[in-house]
Design goal:
mainly alpha; UstE-like; single chain; 268 residues; transmembrane helix; transmembrane
């Protein structure tokens, strides 16, 4: 087999959609039982991992084994680390203020509104954003330079994300830092090292998909574009900075620190 397996890929798209839906519906049931919807943030990384694993199984016999294993492992490492980090960060806390504000303006039954506006929406985004992970598994050609370049970009992103999260967690754990702006470590060079890390992770996974052929590259290019928009203009950087805007010291920090891509501080 020398061409991209379009038929098998199309069937796999249905399996991955069902997988993302199942994870989000299961999370919705758990959230109702617990009385808090913040658990959906944990399910985000879990859903990507589940889609990667299901696609790996469905693509057996259709794609290069090395690329299938590579993209599945990269996705699972990223997704499970993110899920574990968010679970630790939210332990002992009540509902996330974002979901409280969202549900406060629900036009009808809050449970049904949460299902539509949070869980089904996030399930659809998981399916869309994971297209490079799915498409990469159906290219028959052996691993080559784009896959290795993609893995390197992914690794750089994971380091930024994990180190940035760890630095922020340590900073917040010190009572002496209460009310202060984190401006150390990676946070000295970008206001959002974790979001920049996510950006690199998904462009890296897209490069792995490009290694599966032009068809895989074309069908999945929307994924990193959507993720980039979410991180910079959607629920990532924009919303967080709106929340932080009134904090003492934020204006000065924002004035000297790059908004997204790492760069040396202005005036320093």
């Amino acid at each position: 087999m020398s061409t991209f397996s379009w038929g098998a890929f199309a069937v796999s798209l249905a399996w991955s959609a069902a997988t993302a839906l199942a994870v989000m519906l299961g999370t919705f049931v758990i959230a109702l039982a617990r009385g808090a919807h913040r658990i959906v943030d944990v399910a985000w990384g879990v859903a990507f991992t589940a889609v990667a694993v299901v696609t790996f199984a469905a693509s057996a016999g259709h794609g290069d084994p090395g690329r299938r294993l590579l993209v599945t492992v990269l996705t699972a490492v990223w997704g499970l680390r993110l899920a574990a980090h968010i679970a630790r960060r939210g332990r002992g806390h009540g509902e996330d203020p974002r979901y409280e504000a969202l549900l406060a303006r629900a036009p009808g039954d809050r449970r049904l509104y949460a299902l539509r506006a949070v869980y089904l929406l996030q399930g659809a985004l998981v399916w869309l954003v994971s297209l490079p992970v799915q498409a990469a598994q159906y290219g028959p050609a052996p691993l080559s330079a784009p896959a290795f370049a993609g893995a390197a970009v992914w690794a750089a992103g994971l380091v930024f994300e994990a180190v940035g999260d760890a630095q922020l967690a340590r900073f917040k754990a010190d009572p002496a830092h209460r009310g202060r702006i984190m401006d150390r470590g990676l946070w000295r060079y970008t206001r959002h090292p974790n979001y920049f890390g996510d950006f690199c992770v998904w462009w890296g996974l897209y490069l792995v998909a490009c290694d599966a052929g032009t068809g895989a590259a074309a069908v999945s290019v929307l994924s990193p574009l959507v993720m980039s928009a979410l991180l910079t203009k959607g629920s990532g950087k924009r919303l967080l900075e709106r929340h932080m805007a009134e904090r003492p010291g934020w204006a000065a920090y924002a004035a000297r620190t790059s908004g997204f891509f790492p760069w040396r501080p202005r005036g320093g």
